[in-house]
Amino acid sequence: MSATEDNICARGGCHFHVALVLVAGMALPTTHCGDACADYEWLRRGLDAMEPTPDVAALYTNLRGVADILDARTDPTEIGALIDA
Ligand SMILES: [Zn+2]
Predict the structure, then answer these.
(1) CA of 6 to the centre of ligand 1 (A)
(2) How far is the CA of 10 from the centre of ligand 1 (A)?
(3) Interval between CA 52 and ligand 1 midpoint (Å)
């Protein structure tokens, strides 16, 4: 059993460790290294749920560009949340 493998960001292609979030004074691991990867997965799932039209294909292309930017980071905090909510 490798605890290290389990603590890698859930976004494919990302090798950063997950972020920790404080819940009731305890540091608990999240599923992604930061807001950017979590937002990315949320966007990708949204596209996966849509009809595969040419517009959606173009959005996938844009999303791959975002993935390239995320993959180029040397630190997960270089890019914060993708979505201002
Ligand atoms: Zn990540």
Answers:
(1) 13
(2) 7
(3) 26
Alpha carbon distance 33, 15 (integer Å): 9
Answer for the pair 63, 44: CB distance below 8 angstroms, yes or no.
yes
Contact present, 40 and 67 (Cβ < 8 Å) = yes
Q: Which residues contact 84 (CB under 8 A, 6 or more apart)?
A: none
- Please tell me the distance between residue 7's alpha carbon and the centre of ligand 1 in angstroms: 11
pLDDT tens by residue, 30-74: 999 999 999 999 999 999 999 999 999 999 999 999 999 999 999
Burial of 50 (0-12, 13-18, 19+ CB in 10 A): exposed
